[in-house]
Design a protein that fits this description.
alpha+beta, seven-stranded mixed beta sheet, six-stranded antiparallel beta sheet, Peptidase C14 caspase domain-containing protein, Pept_C14_caspase, protease, Metacaspase
């Protein structure tokens, strides 16, 4: 299963700036010498110059002894202050060399007893009386956050390294780019960096910067090993990546599709992580049209779609079948198949004539099942003529994969998702969901002119919004084994003077401060510009789990990606390991804390955090959407026994008030 982004009308990308790092030789004799990291870095530089036309003056390179810890940090900071780099210009940071793990210092909320680092040239050596520790992942996250805040989030990070090393020297035949270092890390490491990375302006709702500041392409999963090819003296991942890029073109592929186009690499599964992995490479925007494709296989005469109920497939859904992913653009489908029975959690049996299907095939959804219909109530008012014309046009057009619109009468208004009415010559939208109205929000704070096209955009977005908001499973096993905490955070930097040392080993950044705020599934807060929040997902089960987290905004129908697992060519690292936790907004999970705001004229707002849990990796990248009321809304359609095959959802209501209830 994979997501393919189809592109049209692509313009030339803006000027690209790059920081390219390759380290074969390390200062410490305890760290193995590599043979292909510098060669990889130079190959990336040649690709940027030759294939993309990037000027040499726009690329900084650090090879071997040049790549000290201080120089790497300073070089990333230099990108932030470079006056030549304009907002949203593409920035590439490439690193080939050793990755590593070291013991987490006291006071760091790392989620485990180890942290991951990039191994700089001087790692493990003494400098100014202290051992150089490499660059921890949280330090990199802060540096990338600062970079994206200044230059935009069109930042691509490529790491050809791993963190699955050992304390003993590697056999030279293995050529693994990972080590485990025996270094005592001071608790105040990088406090000079982190204290300046305080959040001064956090976007409303739940925008986290750990995953939105950049897209990461990594050579392998967390427990896997990034390997070098001893014959070609190159990294397997970088070779495959550059060969694929030269084959398809950087301006024709998204990050996610690029990873999925890579050849199979033995024992390593390259990963793609970030909110913007569906964007075109080196661009700050998504393609003009996108759709999700699913693999289809033939099993004992049955046609099996590699997607099920967790993906949103329902009984009655229809799919066009293509021989390969590239043929979707302009080719006629081989056939059309239907989900005639209720899907399984992660797969669906399709029916129809599949005689033309070969060994490999891919499915594009062309029709939704009846469960996905949007129910709208519209009063019989002559002032709403434009609404009826918009509904008629939307129903008649019936674009690929589009959900059906049903108009309900007054006596059935309780079944409707939305009520459309007229007020002072404008179109208004009344919220009918009792889970929202019970808290006092019964109307969206937007009005539209009586324009058919604008009304259609809202209707289309509402169909997508309410389907993904309400779909779930009735089982409760996963909901019972994953514990959710939502709490207010404190900014530790505010408590420590610039010159002061934190004797308690406090984790610079944010940490929980106060009680658990979820009460019977609801978080009820009074909006405070200075208040910041975070959450923790704790897996109390003995098996790894996958989680995707979204924020649903009932006021504007937007769905924001809060957390999603990475995409991979093969196996995806599960974010919820057995008996471990995933923190969001603080700690090892990274990202900015959450903050809340109310729109002008609003005294209350209600949103939902929805958590999808599953025992297998699920690509839910088609769930997020922008608000149809925003100017940049896309004009196209977004298209006791060990348990297996489970998926469930958890819904948390977030009530935001201007004043405390009396």
């Amino acid at each position: 299963m994979f997501c393919l982004i189809l592109t049209t009308n692509v313009s030339k990308p803006p000027s690209l700036f790059a920081l390219i790092i390759g380290i074969d030789e390390y200062k410490s004799s305890t760290i193995d010498t590599l043979c292909g990291a510098v060669a990889d870095a130079k190959a990336v530089k040649r690709y940027l110059e030759g294939s993309l036309g990037v000027l040499t003056s726009q690329m900084a390179t650090l090879y071997n002894a040049e790549a000290t810890r201080d120089t790497i940090v300073q070089s990333i900071r230099a990108l932030q202050t470079d006056p030549r780099i304009l907002k949203d210009d593409p920035i590439l940071i490439f690193y080939a060399g050793h990755g590593g793990t070291i013991s987490a210092p006291s006071g760091w909320d790392a989620g485990s007893d180890e942290i991951q680092i990039l191994v700089s040239y001087d790692a493990g050596c003494k400098t100014k009386g202290r051992t150089v520790c490499g660059i921890p992942d949280r330090t990199l996250n802060f540096l990338l956050h600062q970079l994206s805040k200044e230059k935009g989030n069109n930042v691509t990070v490529i790491f050809d390294c791993c963190h699955a090393g050992s304390l003993t020297r590697n056999d030279r035949s293995r050529l693994v780019r990972g080590v485990k270092l025996d270094i005592d890390v001071p608790s105040d490491l990088d406090d000079d960096i982190l204290k300046y990375a305080r959040v001064t302006s956090v976007p409303p709702k739940f925008l986290t910067t750990d995953l939105s500041s950049h897209v990461l392409l990594a050579a392998c999963g967390q427990k896997e090993k990034a390997k070098e090819n001893p014959i070609k003296s190159r990294g397997e991942f970088t070779m495959a990546l550059l060969n694929t890029l030269m084959s398809v073109g950087a301006d024709q592929v998204t990050y996610k599709d690029l990873i999925q186009r890579l050849p199979i690499l033995p024992d390593q599964n390259p990963q793609c992580e970030g909110h913007h992995q569906n964007d075109i490479l080196f661009r700050s925007k998504a393609p003009s049209h996108r759709c999700q494709l699913y693999a289809v296989r033939v099993d004992d005469g049955e046609y099996i779609l590699e997607a099920g109920s967790v993906h949103g497939v329902t009984k009655g859904s229809t799919f066009d079948i293509y021989p390969n992913r590239d043929s979707v653009v302009n080719k006629t489908p081989l056939t059309r198949l239907t989900a005639s029975e209720a899907p399984n959690p992660f797969s669906t049996v399709l029916s129809g004539d599949g005689s033309k299907i070969g060994i490999e095939a891919f499915a594009l959804q062309t029709g939704a099942g009846a469960e996905e219909d949007l129910f709208i109530h519209v009063a019989l008012d002559s002032k709403l003529e434009s609404v009826f014309r918009a509904l008629a046009a939307e129903i008649k057009e019936n674009k690929t994969g589009q959900r059906q619109i049903r108009i309900v009468e007054e006596d059935q208004i309780a079944t409707a998702h939305l009520d459309v009415a007229s007020e002072n010559g404008k179109i208004i939208f009344n919220i009918l969901d009792s889970h929202v109205t019970i808290h006092g929000l019964d109307r969206m704070p937007f009005q539209l002119d009586c324009t058919v096209d604008d009304i259609r955009l809202v209707i289309r977005a509402a169909a997508h919004y309410y389907w993904h908001l309400h779909r779930t499973r009735e089982t409760k096993f996963l909901r019972n084994v994953v514990k959710i905490e939502f709490m207010r955070l404190k900014d530790n930097d505010e408590e420590v003077d610039d010159e002061a040392q934190d004797d308690e080993g406090r984790d610079y950044g944010c940490s929980p401060d106060g009680p658990e705020l979820i009460q019977e599934g609801v978080v009820d807060i009074v909006v405070d510009d200075d208040a910041i929040y975070g959450m923790k997902l704790k897996n109390t089960f003995g098996e790894p789990l996958y989680a995707s987290v979204f924020y649903f905004d009932n006021s504007d129908l937007s769905i924001m990606s809060y957390f999603q697992p990475p995409t991979a060519k093969g196996t995806v690292d599960p974010p919820l390991l057995p008996y471990q936790s995933l923190t969001l907004g603080y700690g090892a999970g990274g990202g900015l804390p959450f903050t809340y705001s109310l729109r002008d004229g609003q005294d209350i707002d209600v949103g939902f955090i929805k958590i999808f849990l599953s025992t297998e990796q699920v690509d839910l990248s088609v769930v997020p959407q922008k608000s149809p009321f925003s100017k940049d809304y896309p004009r196209g359609v977004d298209i006791s026994e060990k348990p297996r095959g489970l998926w469930e959802t958890i819904l948390i209501t977030i009530v935001q008030r201007r004043n405390a209830p009396h």
